[in-house]
Amino acid sequence: MSFMKQCTSIDEIRKEISALKKQGKTIAFVPTMGALHEGHLSLIRLAKKKADEVVVSIYVNPEQFGPNEDFEDYPRQVQVDLDACEKEGASLVFTPNDKVMYGSGKKYFRIEVDTLNEYMDGGSRPGFFEGIVLVVNKFFNIIEPNVAIFGQKDIQQFQILKQMVHEFNHDVELIAAPIARANDGLALSSRNAYLNDEQRKIAPGLYRALQYVERQIKDGVMEPKLLLDHQQDELEAKGFKNDYLNVFSMKTMEPVEKLETGNKYILAGAVYVGQTRLIDNIILDL
Q1: Concatenated DSSP letters for 182-213?
Q2: Of 37, 40, 166, 170, which one is the catalytic site residue?
C-alpha cells in the first residue's frame, strides 16, 4: 500500500511528481482552499478515475480575496483535510505557504482578465478572477498535471480557466465535476459553515428559484427577464439579499435577454444570507 505524502515546497512537489512521471504515471490535480467537504471529496474520486495518481493542493490564496472579504476568517483545518485526502487515496498533497507561492519582494508581472469577468461573480468581486488565474497558472507550471478537476459550482471560474489553458498553451485537460448538494439541494460550500440554523433552513431557496426558472424556460419561456425579476423579489421576501440572478452566455459570460434553441446557457445566482454569500447555477442546454 502506498502512503500519501505532504509537500510544502515547490522543489519537493516537483521531485515527487517527476518520480511518478518517470514510472509512466498520469497525474490528476485537484486545487482546493481546504476546509474540504463532500463536494471536494467527489472531485478527488473523479480525479482517481481520470488518472493514475491524484495531487491535491490546499492553499487559501490571498490574491483572490478583496480587502473586505473573509480571508482571515476563511475556515482552515489542515490536519482534518490531510486525513480526508489520505482516506480518499490522494498520492500527494501540496500545502505551500504565501512565501512559497508568491516569494517576497516586488512583483513585475500580473495577469489581467478581459470581459469574461465583467458579470456574475467577477462583477461583484473585482480582482477575484485575476487572483484565481494567477494561482492556477502557477500551480499548472509547478505540477504540470495531465488533468485538472474543478467543480461546476464555480462555473465562471471553470470557463475562464478553460480560456486561460487555451491561450497560454497549458497541456492539461480541464474537467468540471457536477455540483455536490446536501439532501435539501443546497450546493455544498466551505462557506456554508458560516450559516446559523435559521439561515441554513432558508439557504436552499436559491437553488429552488433556479429550478423554477429552469422549468419555465424548458416549457418555452425564451425571454425570462420578468420571471427572473419575480424570483429575485421572492428571494428578497424570504430574507435573502440578492447579488444577481440571470441567464448568461456559456461562451462570453454576458447576460442574455433572448434565449435561442441549440445554444448553451448558464442560469446562475448569487445571494447573501446574513453575511454569507451563496452561489449556484444550472447549465441550460436548449
Answers
A1: -TTSPBP-GGGGG--HHHHHHTTHHHHHHHHH
A2: 40
